[in-house]
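Q: Give me the 3D complex with fe (ii) ion.
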Amino acid sequence: MVNPRLREALLEGTDLAPFGRLVDAPAEGMTLADVPVERLLATTLSAKVLVLRGYGLLDVPELERYCEAAGELMRWEFGTILDLVVQDDPKNYLFDSGDVPFHWDGAWSERAPRFFLFQCVQGCDPGAGGETVFSDATAVYRDAPPALRDLWARTTVTYRTDHLAHYGGTMSHPVLAEHPTTGETTIRYAEPLDPAQYRNPLFLTVEGPSSEEAVQVMAELSERLHDPRYCYEHAWRTGDIVVAENHALLHGRNRFTGSTNRHMQRIQII
Ligand SMILES: [Fe+2]
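A: Here is the predicted complex, encoded as structure tokens.
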């Protein structure tokens, strides 16, 4: 139950399916800076994905200042804002036009961000793909049969990837975790990246269950996380701002074709 005071604080808009909320700017000339940050966060926590459309984008210092009011920012070697663009000779699949399998942000850091925000500086042509896909891991867990939940509860996955972008190394994470704000059980899982198909491959070792059960763990996760009943696909329009709740969701990207001018900016709030 959302408490009444929180409901009051939520931004009004249109509900997206199967989750998410779209908020159109109520007047021309408004920017993200006109959205009270506590309402932005409360709406995102409730809807899991918040799409703001028609609000002007902020430049880098303004975006940092706005998000700093929401919480501590993740800092990387490039700073706080990652420019997702297609590079000529990328070492990592984030910087080409292929798909990005499901993962959560912060798997390689001590702390995972609570929220991340994208500004779409330049979207893809209509029909060219490049959608960001969000899977509601809390709902996938909630709807799974008890025997499968028990199996997931006994499973830890070790991930290994080379440090070719801003992350990498070896990390282990239990498949299930408690959402730090809502207390719900959520799934933390990053899909494997086959070296034959992806730059910067990601290797998984499943620990806990038997080897047959390990195969079942991965097959069930792959099938259930991609079930359209749990996935919101955001087709980007230039100028969109999307805020996502990192702990409840996994996310990835569809491949895109045509122009390679797609440009997104991402900032993460702890
Ligand atoms: Fe990500």
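A quick observation: Residues 4-269 form a domain with the Double-stranded beta-helix fold (CATH 3.60.130.10).
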